[in-house]
Amino acid sequence: MSKTQLPPFDPFSLPESNGTIYPEPFASLQRKRFNRRLGDHAGLANFGVVMTRIEPGGQSSCRHAHAKQDEFVYVLDGEPTVETDAGRQKLKPGMCIGFPAGTGDGHRFINETEKDVLFLVIGDRTPGEIVTYPDVDLAGAQGPDGKYRFTKKDGSDY
Prior knowledge:
Blueprint: E1 33-37, H1 38-41, E2 47-54, E3 65-66, E4 71-77, E5 81-84, E6 87-90, E7 96-99, E8 108-110, E9 117-124, E10 130-132, E11 139-142, E12 148-151
Antiparallel strand pairs: 1-2, 2-9, 3-10, 4-7, 4-9, 5-6, 5-8, 10-11, 11-12
């Protein structure tokens, strides 16, 4: 079966979602973050592209590091602050940053301004991903079915 190229689309025509797969109490921390899954809409299987908007006072996620999947972020609008193991840095439109898999460098984006921030997140979809969260009692592992299971760091359920 051959795949067909999908026609161009306006990313802003896609619905936004602030849903999250995090368990509570972490899910409620993501309520000011909205995603549009551009890669899924385009039918991409090998990597994902997400347009993320964060309202003032919001964050992209809990600070996390990927074991197997690379992640690349390109800022479109606003001035998010990226928080990594090296500290905090304000980014501006046109700037980008990458997080190679396996480095253990925990990262997240926060909006400390009065204006929404908008950026693209591009990441590969290597199976069997393990995500660590250095600042909170959370661990994530991707199962064979591609779905993530979140536990406490000791392996117990939420």
